[in-house]
């Protein structure tokens, strides 16, 4: 990794924490620069603006999420369970997606589970589903169930050792809820 790549990576890491905590409006470039141990001007050289930096952070997490939680239309309960796990392991992704929707006014086009072309691919994979829900509705329901206990939910599970059992029970409930949702009709 080149020195420039290492610097860029430190900026993105510091910016991830800052944006997850306060969104675009609440983030401070000075704090990001200090945490990344770089001159503030480098942030503007690499990313042009605070908004450009947010977009780079967001895109990096969307891409990572899409690769780490592959969509499995033939196993929607398993997909929902893996998405639940990913959100538990990476709460910053959920926070970034929430800030993106709130501050960018976006309808979720860059949400890790439903981003752009990835959303279309998911909908195409569900197009053969014979059931009471259109593919877009089915995908929305699966994603909502998987995210029911995310950090931005009023039902969020705290990250404490005592909450581990609750998290396991919630994961089981997510998988079972999606299984019941789709059991009434054949898969794609």
Automatic annotation (TrEMBL):
GO BP annotations listed: regulation of DNA-templated transcription
Keywords of the record: DNA-binding
MF-aspect GO terms: DNA binding
Domain HTH tetR-type: 5-65
Annotated Pfam families: TetR_C_21 (PF17926), TetR_N (PF00440)
Annotated DNA-binding residue span(s): 28-47
Alphabetical list of PANTHER family matching this protein: HTH-TYPE TRANSCRIPTIONAL REPRESSOR SCO4008, TRANSCRIPTIONAL REPRESSOR
Protein name, per record: Transcriptional regulator, TetR family
Lineage of the species this protein comes from: Bacteria, Bacillati, Actinomycetota, Actinomycetes, Micromonosporales
């Amino acid at each position: 990794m080149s020195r420039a790549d290492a610097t860029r990576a430190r900026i993105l890491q510091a910016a991830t924490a800052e944006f997850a905590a306060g969104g675009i409006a609440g983030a401070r470039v000075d704090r990001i620069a200090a945490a990344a141990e770089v001159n503030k001007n480098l942030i503007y050289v690499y990313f042009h603006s605070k908004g450009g930096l947010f977009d780079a952070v967001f895109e990096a997490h969307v891409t990572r999420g899409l690769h780490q939680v592959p969509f499995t239309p033939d196993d929607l309960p398993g997909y929902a369970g893996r998405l639940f796990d990913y959100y538990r392991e990476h709460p910053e992704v959920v926070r970034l997606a929430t800030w993106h929707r709130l501050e960018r006014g976006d309808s979720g086009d860059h949400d890790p589970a439903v981003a752009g072309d990835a959303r279309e691919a998911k909908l195409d994979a569900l197009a053969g589903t014979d059931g009471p829900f259109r593919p877009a509705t089915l995908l929305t329901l699966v994603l909502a169930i998987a995210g029911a206990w995310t950090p931005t939910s009023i039902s969020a599970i705290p990250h404490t050792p005592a909450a581990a059992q609750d998290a396991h029970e919630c994961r089981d409930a997510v998988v079972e809820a999606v299984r019941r949702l789709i059991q009434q009709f054949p898969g794609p």
